[in-house]
Amino acid sequence: MFFQNNYFYYITIGLQAICALHCIRKGTQNKWIWLIVFLPVVGSIAYIFTEIFSGSNIRNVQSGMGSFFNASGSIRRLEDNLRFTDTFNNRVILADAYLAAGRTDEAIELYESGLRGAFEENEHVLMQLIVAYFVKQDYEKLLPLAKKIYNRPQFARSRAHIYYAISLEYTGHVGMAEEEFRKMKARFSYFESRYQYGLFLQRASREQEARTVFTEIVEEAPHLSARERRDSRSWISQAKEKLKKG
Q: Between vectors from CA 46 to CA 67 and to CA 189, what angle results, nearest 5°?
């Protein structure tokens, strides 16, 4: 329903999973993993140019990247790794790969099986489960997961927060949904969440308010830095399209 035609979203998830897998294999996860998870676009781009396209790595990019982007081959290797060594990390890495490849049910099964004992409140797994349940439109299961990490600092600016707000709407809690969207509404930032707030207003037949939100997004774009415009390009472009259609 919601993000089925949003290619930018799936590209982002794919890059995030690829970079996470690569940094874990390289042993640089302590330095990079949280940046990749919570700032997927910026973190993934920074990781690619810092760790993959740098130093001695540049000589192996052409051959290495081809096999790295071979999803089925990578997944088979990760499945073999899990069969031989059934650890939490191997489960999560394979689940991330499944999710990026659109094998959402298999990803959910692995994520859920990993939420045991010391890992019961693992933030990365909960975030990824929120993504997976949203893709499946299983909004009722998403809500309690979001509540578990609601007060953690990373949640406020995350895509999981957006999914939480939309899921509240789709489960009949429209007032609560708008309250969450308003928490993610600030000038010169939160472009994705503000764009989704505009869509929320349109679904509520509040067209003029929606146009105001889209107009603010477009008018702020020229005042952003080059990096900020690049990171928010998709949402600015989509806001422009909404205004044209109006």
A: 130
